[in-house]
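Weekly modeling sync, notes
Attendees: S.R. (lead), two postdocs, one rotation student

Agenda item 3: backlog of single-chain predictions. S.R. asked that every request posted to the team notebook include the full sequence so nobody has to chase files. The rotation student volunteered to paste the first one in as an example of the format we agreed on. Action items at the bottom.

Example entry:
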Amino acid sequence: MRILMAAPECVPFAKTGGLADVVGALPVALAGMGHEVAVIMPRYQSVRLDHPVTLIPSMSVPMGGALRFATILEGPPLGKPGAQVRTFFVEHPPYYDRPGLYGPPGGEYGDSAGRFAFFCYAVMEAGKQIFRPDILHSHDWPAALLPVLKHSNYMFDWAWGPVKTVLTIHNIGYGYQGEFDKTAMPGVGLGWDLFRMDRLEHHDHVNFLKGGIVYSDAVTTVSPSYAEEIKTPALGAGLDGVIRNHAHKLHGILNGVDYGEWNPESDKYLIENYGPDDLSGKRECKRDLLQDFELPTSEADLARPLIGIVSRFAAQKGFDLIAAAAYELVSEDLTLVALGTGEPAYEALFRELHQAFPGRVAVRIGFSNELAHKIEAGADMFLMPSRYEPCGLNQMYSLKYGTPPIVHATGGLDDTVDAETGFKFVHHDGPGMMWAIREALAAYHDRERWEKMMRTGMERDHSWAAAAREYEKVYLALLANR
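Predicted structure, as returned to the notebook:
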């Protein structure tokens, strides 16, 4: 079958989060199964393309009663020969030739409704000319208008009639729904007949993600547990009722991991590679990590359990729990290293802890892919106390690297970590987190139990091949009813 993935970001071209990793990997896995797959995204200012091919120099894009124009480019393919994915880019400088994907640093652009509505119209127009799919697969709110347009503005377009639509929700949280003032409706070419409670209207605003949920043929989330959680007021972010009404087409499919990139047996960033059959290299990775953070590397320091964190520093990621229990945490006999950036209060907290415990706590504000790999390999355990986590990738990286995760039992964290591979706490509070950490510390000192846990996690398969098979089932079921 022919599958067109529409998304606001995709590695290696543009990334702000895990969405880009999914869009860069899932299509390749599907292509490896014999499907013809393409990805289309905006060409932002930061997207660098070597020798792109101009497929459509000037394509008319009707939106809001006016004609705008876009250039459609083809970039380098994703994947390897025999299982390659074509990449298309919507070029429109007035909307995309700006710093940042969604806004300047620390903000968002005021015309986001128009920017991503235009992207969706451009996909609808380009799809007819360069890649006519059987499945149109949208990712998150910036592409969520595609199923809406198919059932409204393009309802009688012969090219789109037989196409089935899928929407993947990577994060339904507040601020991730594409919600705008209702005055945006005419400007993005949406009729007022769509502004109803059972369509796009949400508390007197227009909500792109809600529209995508209502009009898509299938909705997926990035883990089975998250599919259940977003049906509840606690984690549905105001759209739980919409999700429950459309639960018959909801599927929870766990994201995969790119083991070509994340594998301690071949990781180019590690001072020494290792695997489940020979764990000895992990000790050298721990020594190297301590040196990178300018922490002592005596035998006593190497024997002390080392907790690693790679994260955005935010309350959603559980940093409120870390802040509340910070001094209780560092009073334990452990070493703590953290990599990330985020809310200033949490950055300041880690700097303060480093100053108070310079030999046992270290932080690197910012992001380094190399250091992230080194933390996964060099740490003994990985802390991920997210308030909610639609899927999460770091806990799956940790399993592969023999670094048992300590997680809050939510979303993909709950789906991927069990008593044989890590430690979970149910109540999202400081005492719950500290209980799980102490359980991990106790297990660490039982070397036989700990190494069995390491090896069990390393042998778990969270590859993209398994996820792709689940998406294929969804697609085939839709096409069978076409």
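Discussion: group reviewed the output briefly. The chain has two domains: 2-256+465-480, 280-460.
Action items: rotation student to repeat for the remaining queue; S.R. to check formatting next week.
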